[in-house]
User: Fold these one by one.
Assistant:
Number 1:
Amino acid sequence: MSAHDQMRAMLDQLMGTGRNGETSRYQVQFNDPKVCKSFLLYCCPHDILASTRMDIGECPKIHDNALRADFEKAQQKFDHYYDVDATEHLQAFISDCDRRTEAARKRLLETQEELTAEVAEKANAVHELAEKIGHTLAKAEELGAQGLVDESLKLMGEIEDLRKKKSEAEDTYRNSMPVSSYQQQKLRVCDVCSAYLGIHDNDRRLADHFGGKLHLGFIKIREKLSELEKNYEERHEARRKFDEQERYKRDDKRSHRSRSGDRNERHRRSRSRSRHSRHRSRSRSRSRTHKHDRRDRDRRRY
């Protein structure tokens, strides 16, 4: 995106579609069904996961920063309940991801050598420590990039302690099974983003995973969904009542227009009958007058 396009997008986001008297390039308003409600609330998975291994392509609905600005201004005056739509959208997306995660776990059970309960527990201990190291290392690097050196060094000290615990757990796991089996890569599925993680993955690979855009994107989506679900039932009920009231108002308006139309029709028919009656009365009057004139002419003739 060029600097000009970036500046235009920033102005759209700040000022909406009314900037310089312009209208949306899509010729729609923010409340159009074709506009993505999740985008308006900054939580559309199509945007969050763009350019990752799980990029799901362009959203089928409209994304426009100017429409988002219009929505934010309108929301200050009137509640549109778009969080209900966004909750249902994210619920469907996360449910689909969780189904894929469970399917991946089942495939691993079918393809990997089955471990006894005791050995599986030891392998999980290694996995959990490795993941904790990856999380902590990614956080330490993030703090270092922000210039928080002391906090970063503190986390690096925690990582050294975790590495010692992991080394001990690996020895326990190694001693509980044959060497040939230990050398095989034992995989597990990440609960957050459904990526595969190996028991022999090094710290760098794990840090790249837990600090990567894909994993962090899924964390953002799941946290947003958790936030929205707190008040979902209450908000859903409030929107249902609001929609019901709006429906009653529309029905009343249609009923009023219908009654008004009936009154107008009755009035029109009444006026028509009145005109017809006056016309008949004038016709009878002219007929009687014509008859009297004829009789007068006949008398004068004789």
Note: Residues 232-301 form the longest helix (70 residues).
Number 2:
Amino acid sequence: MGYRWLRIAVWIVVALAVVGNVAVLVVILSIRSEVASVSRFLMGHLAFADLCLGLYLLLIASIDAHSMGEYFNFAYDWQYGAGCKVAGFLTVFASHLSVFTLTVITIERWMAITHALHLNYRIKLKQAGYVMTAGWFYSIIMSSLPLSGISNYSSTSICLPMEDRDTYDTIYLVTIMGLNGVAFFIIALCYAQIYMSLGKETRQAHGASMGEMSVAKKMALLVSCS
């Protein structure tokens, strides 16, 4: 990684990502409720995706610690070995599943808040299951393409599919960027509508309405973090 502060920061993120998302999964799986919650179902998928991203960072941090000061002796074996392929698969799978799940969560919250009086507009658990199955297939396909020769995970030491050799590689990279852009647009649009649905009184909140204004600000923060 080249810098000590970067190594320390990565290990901190690894600890938070692994411990935090494992804790979320344990809590979600331990809840026993007669009525299945779509929100908990989706949050479980998001936590699993973020856990995979934490495991990717753990692999990168571990090889960095193992090869510190002499990475040139390990570069070829690492980048063209199974380890880098596993790390690359994890990060592409995790990032796509995370963005997909976050988009679905946003749409589910948008429907629940902006159509609060219309119960038929809610996403049911069965529907959420079908949607997330599609999301898993999509994420697995996108993370498997570099293993089949479309771009590859060996072009960089952090095992990201950055190689652009031909038209197929270009289409793959543009598709990734385009789909992430579409997801961000959907998330931003949904949260903007949620914010607007709070009403002018809330946006100019005073006194008791400050709580709702705080919620609106947190929504804007979520869009920025996305």
Note: The two ends are 25 Å apart (CA to CA).
Number 3:
Amino acid sequence: MASSQVAFPITLFLFSLAFSSISASEEATTKTVEKKVDVVVEGMVYCQSCNKFGSWSLTGSTPISGAKVSVICKNQKNQVSYYKSFATNANGYFYAQLDGFKMKNNLSDHPLQSCHVKLVSSPLQSCNLLTNVNYGLDGSPLRYEKKNFADNNYEAVIYAAGPLAFRPAYCTPSSHN
């Protein structure tokens, strides 16, 4: 009888070991780490050349450092659901991470449908008039160019706005001979 009494505790021990191993694996699968996904909008801001005034051409334009743009998102009721302004870097480029942006209705609240970029201000007194290049006055629509950044628990989905431009307040008239 001694051998059967020993076999029962060993079986019980092996069963409890197997059960604890199953419990641990269940805990591991239920404790999944949430992946953080950010929405980012990028683009460029330029000073449009005087000789391209009145067009959407950016030939001969120069990037503006410190220009401000705003990202505005509206819900399906045309109410502002997100607003923030961003400044360009030394090369006229802005990378706008939309902290706090939320989508309630997947289609109508999607950034491609609900968000636009508008010109706000230029630090250059010599080039601070708004233009409507790529709809900078009304709001440049976003486009998806298959850009993203992904890491273990993080992903940034990057949307682009068309290049925007200010123009000089005064351009020397060209002489026609």
Note: The longest helix spans residues 2-30.
